[in-house]
């Protein structure tokens, strides 16, 4: 099982409505990220939901031509999520490896030895893809409906369309 949950927390300091909030990725019984109660909205650090959705779409699209990829957690100095697609399944591992300066968010290998932080999780590719595309659609609808200039989201919309096209090829 795979699910994505997010909670948008709007702030006057955001670049656009729906930019930030809380996000969690749930792989079977393992949860990466946190959705906090309303009482903690102003206390806990928010993440860029936009950046997470964008990067997950990129990962999804990359996995159609490569069998594995590493995604950097932008909010951490040493956290990576390893994705490996094999047949109808997606293997996911959380790794710790310090990020070098100028390291990209998405890479195909890590230069140093990495330490596996948590147990390996395996989910169905179908569950991952349907949840990601559904939640992306929900998020895009929200940001387009709540911002006057939806053109600024064209890159995310295009990534989503590419991902949808992969399903129908």
Structural class: alpha+beta
CATH topology: Secreted effector protein pipB2 fold
Q: Please report the number of helical segments.
A: 3
Strand content: 25-35%
Overall 3D geometry?
globular
- The CATH class designation is Alpha Beta
Number of domains: 1
CATH architecture identity: 2-Layer Sandwich
End-to-end gap: 24 Å
Return Rg in Å: 16 Å
- Overall average residue pLDDT: 93
- Order of helix and strand elements from N to C terminus: EEEEHEEEEEEHH
Largest sheet: 6 strands, antiparallel
Keywords:
4-stranded antiparallel sheet, globular, 6-stranded antiparallel sheet, 169 residues, alpha+beta, 29% helix, 3 helices, Secreted effector protein pipB2 fold
List the helices and strands and how they pair.
Blueprint: E1 2-8, E2 20-27, E3 30-33, E4 47-48, H1 49-62, E5 68-72, E6 79-86, E7 89-96, E8 106-107, E9 115-116, E10 121-124, H2 125-145, H3 154-167
Antiparallel strand pairs: 1-2, 2-3, 2-4, 5-6, 5-8, 6-7, 7-9, 7-10
Helix pairs in contact: 1-2, 1-3, 2-3
């Amino acid at each position: 099982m795979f699910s994505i949950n997010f909670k948008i927390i709007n702030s006057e300091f955001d670049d656009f409505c729906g930019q930030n909030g809380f996000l969690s990725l749930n792989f079977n019984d393992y949860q990466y990220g946190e959705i906090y109660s309303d009482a903690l909205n102003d206390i806990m650090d928010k993440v860029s939901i936009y950046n997470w959705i964008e990067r997950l779409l990129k990962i999804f699209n990359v996995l159609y031509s490569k069998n594995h990829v590493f995604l950097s957690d932008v909010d951490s100095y040493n956290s990576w999520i390893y994705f490996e697609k094999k047949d109808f399944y997606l293997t996911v591992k959380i790794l710790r490896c310090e990020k070098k300066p100028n390291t990209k968010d998405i890479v195909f290998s890590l230069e140093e030895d990495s330490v596996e932080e948590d147990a390996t999780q395996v989910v169905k590719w179908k569950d991952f893809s349907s949840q990601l595309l559904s939640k992306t659609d929900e998020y895009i609808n929200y940001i387009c409906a709540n911002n006057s200039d939806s053109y600024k989201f064209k890159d995310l919309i295009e990534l989503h369309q590419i991902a949808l096209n992969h399903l129908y090829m």
